[in-house]
Amino acid sequence: MSEAIQIIGAGLAGSEAAWQLAKRGIAVRLYEMRPETQTAVHQTGDFAELVCSNSLGAEGLETGAGLLKAEMRLLDSLVIKAADATRVSAGKALAVDRKRFAEYITAKLSAHPKITVIRQEVTSLRELSGLVLIATGPLTSPGLAEAIQDLTGEADLYFFDAAAPIVERESLDESVMYWKSRYDDEGPGDYLNVPLNREEYEAFWRELTTAEVVPLAEHDKLILFEGCMPIEELARRGLDTLRFGPLRPVGLEINGHRPWAVLQLRKEDEAGRLLNLVGCQTRLKWGEQKRVFRTLPGFAEAEFVRYGVMHRNTYINSPQLLAEDMSLVSHPEIFFAGQITGVEGYLESAASGLYTALMLARRFAGLPPLIWPAETMLGSLMAYITDRRHTDFQPMNANFGLLPDLPEKIRSKKERKLAKARRSLVVLEHFAKTQNI
Question: Which of 124, 229, 300, 327 has the highest local Cβ count within 10 Å?
C-alpha cells in the first residue's frame, strides 16, 4: 500500500495512533472536526483535550493503571511522554496540566512531516479510501454515528452506558456464598449467589435508597429504560421491589431453603477472576458504591475493578464486530480504537490507539496480525474487548483480574500484583524485541 492511513478523531486514541504510525514512516491523514464543529464538553481545538479530569490514574505497579503506563512507556507512547512533560503534583497519581498536555500533543503531531491534519467533520465513510481508523470517542458526532450504524447495524451501537460494578473474585468471602444457576439443581451452576436474610436485605435496601448519586452533567439527559434501571431507583419504588426483581430468590434454593433475597454474580471473564454484580447498574457515586455494596455478606473486603456507571457513552459491540486486530469483521479495511470500542478511561483509550496502530502498521506492510501475550496488561485488555464469548458486553478498564494467574501462590495481595506486573514487563520487553515493535 502506498496511500496514507486515514484517522478520524484526534483524541487520545487517534493522537497516539497517528504518532505510532508516523514514527514508522507511514503517512497519516488525521481528521479532527474541532474547533469548526465543537462538542458539548470540549473547549478548544487542541488534540487529546482532557475534559472530565486531569488525572491519568495511579502510577504504582501494583495498580492496573500503573502497569499499563509502564507498558506504554516501554512502547514509546506519545501520550505518556506528554503526561511526563506536563505533570503536576498529585500524590501517587499521574496528573497533568490539561492545557499544556493538549498543546504538547497538538504541536508534536502538527509538526510531523508524515501527518497531514484536516480540520473537518467526517460524516460519511464512503469518501475515504484505503485503511481507516475510527477513534472518535464517546462523543462521536451524530452524522458519523449514523454512518457507523449503517456499517454495524443499529443494535450494535450503544448511546447509553448502563453498567454494573465488577469485583475481583479473590477479594470475596465465598464461604457465605454458593454457586448455582436459577432452577438448575445439577452441578455447581454459572452464578455465584449471595443469600440475604430479611435483616440483611432491608439494611442493604436502606443504604441503597439513601446513598448519594452522581449528578447529571449539563450536556447529558438521563433516559431511564426499564431494562437498565439503576438499582437504587428500583429500590425507591418500594421495600420489596428488588426481592421481586434483580434480587429475587426463586429457583435459587440452597439445602432446601429459599433465602429472603439473593444477589447474583456472573463471570466477566473465562477464568472467572472477575465477577459482575447482576442487575446492579447504578448511578451511585463511586465511594458510595464501595460503601454500600461492602455491606453485603462476604463483601467486606471486596475490590472493585470497575464501578457502575450510567451516562451517555457511544460504543460499539466490539466482541461481536471486531477481529483481534481491531478491524471490522464485515469491513476489514475499517479499524476502531479508543472509548468507542468499550475501553474505559483516558489511559485505556490511548493504549488502545497504540495497540491498533501497531496492528494497522502490520496490515499496511502486508503482514498478519500479532497475537499479544496474555501476560501483558495491554494484550489482555484488548483480548477482552474482542473476545466473541462476551454476549453481554460492557466497557472495561485495566485491572489485574484480566491477567493470568501466577504459577506460584502469593498470599500478600500487593506482592501478588507486583509479581504479575514484573512478569508483564519482562514478557512485553521480550515480545517487543523479538517482533521488532
Answer: 327
